[in-house]
Write a structure and sequence with these properties.
The structure is a homodimer of 239-residue chains. Chain A contains ten helices and five strands; from the N terminus they run ααββααβαββααααα. With 239 residues, the first copy, chain A, is α+β, with helices and mostly antiparallel strands. The structure holds a DNA duplex (30 and 30 nucleotides). Chains A, B: Keywords: DNA-binding, Transcription, Transcription regulation.
DNA sequence: TTTTCACTCCCCAGAAATGGTGAGGTATCG
DNA sequence: CGATACCTCACCATTTCTGGGGAGTGAAAA
């Protein structure tokens, strides 16, 4: 068991960790500390590619990427819609794809129990911190009850570190949309046509187009749908 | 000073808090516990409207809303771009609007020292948990060094509670998309035109349209952009 | 004071998306 | 075994979006 006083120590060490290697060795020793099978921190980017640190085997990570499991992985799909940390048992494993995924995962020595903390950062950054183990439901519940707060805190420390290491992640963040551009993007994301948006905002459709185009330019988007998608995932608009 | 053992107690109490009133009374007693001027949890929606709980005076909250201070408040603007909790001293108070805002805030008995934890949830939800006080820089630094981890954890507990109280924020029962529909929505969200998507997926554009339309139907969307926006904010696709 | 930026308005022509309808094959689930 | 869901292809006419232009105001920043 990891006591509260150990938490201080762990976080101190984590704060001093340097580079990806530092994070990797931190997560390994943390895994040992918790005495569980796996501990993983990773984030998901636009292509579904995963990067991060953790104790999953190389084979499993390769298999995961090669099979594009992020599209069916209930952990990713489920956590993306939640704020709360989630026990894997609460997820929906009923689809065929999910069951297949689970079966393959087991072959690669991924434990049957899991607890994942979703983490969100600026610009739609999304990451997961996952504890994984093989044991009974009761044992796992006890473990989670004991450690969930600590896991949340550690998850956030990992993400802070990861964001420090990846300045690429937020390069063109500075481009904020003007209020009118936000209005336009928001209404478009709500399904309004350009004519309806212009009407709602009480401006001409021509003017509206200027906003859409300047928003598209700022967001580096290829078309309106792309601009709305980017604005959404960067958290610039809320629908 | 709030000890680590008190933290457990505080979080236990918070978890049992019921409704907005429960959160409000929790935050007041937490403020007393920390012995600081103010403690505030609030979230910001697309229109800039604020809701939440805290110990700022009604007058200040009204003034803030009426003056639309969220558009110039360096705390909001600064935290929106970051993941890390931030000491108000690190923010950019140099613009004229910011200085004016600070002057008015002081009139309304907002303290000179602040520490804000940005929190992000699904659908671009954004919230802030702020500790505010009047004291010297040294005293404040000591307070933060002592309590920042606790503040992060409490911030997240408040947000969990707030999300529970706001079912509007939770995505509606998500009817899931078929793999091909996910492919289509994903590529559209990446800015591809229909022709490009069809080409990428090696299907005819006619077939692609069937996917788009059935996705639109499932998502209750009015057009493609709307469908992509909904798929994104429901976490059905990741871009 | 000059420059920058947000906001507003206008035209045109070609490219792209949409709405409605129809049809056939293959899995999977109960 | 039948219902259901998924994947694939096609046509038509109409609406909507897009990519180029150009121009003037006022407020704020340098």
């Amino acid at each position: 068991m990891v006591t509260n006083s150990r938490l201080e120590e762990i976080l101190e060490r984590l704060e001093k960790a340097d580079g990806l290697e530092g994070l990797q060795s931190s997560i390994v020793s943390l895994r040992d500390e918790f005495a569980i099978d796996h501990l993983v921190y990773h984030w998901v980017d636009s292509l579904g590619a995963h990067s991060g640190v953790g104790t999953y085997s190389l084979e499993w990570r390769q298999k995961y990427e090669q099979q594009q499991f992020h599209r069916v992985d209930p952990v990713i799909l489920g956590c993306y819609q939640r704020f709360h940390p989630v026990d894997w048992k609460q997820l929906d494993w009923s689809t065929k794809a999910a069951r297949h995924f689970l079966r393959v995962a087991t072959e690669y020595e991924v434990g049957n129990q899991g607890y994942s903390v979703p983490i969100r950062g600026p610009n739609g950054q999304f990451a997961l911190f996952t504890a994984n183990h093989t044991c009974s439901d009761e044992e796992w519940s006890a473990f989670i009850e004991e450690h969930r707060r600590m896991l949340v805190l550690i998850a956030h420390y990992f993400n802070e570190k990861a964001l420090e290491l990846e300045p690429d992640r937020a390069p063109e963040a500075a481009q904020n949309l003007s209020p009118r551009e936000v209005d336009a993007m928001t209404l478009l994301a709500m399904g309004y046509s350009r004519a309806q948006v212009a009407d709602t905002l009480s401006i001409s459709e021509h003017t509206l187009r200027v906003y859409i185009e300047s928003a598209r330019f700022k967001l580096g988007a290829l078309n309106t749908t792309h601009a709305v998608a980017r604005a959404l995932s960067r958290g610039l608009i809320v629908v």
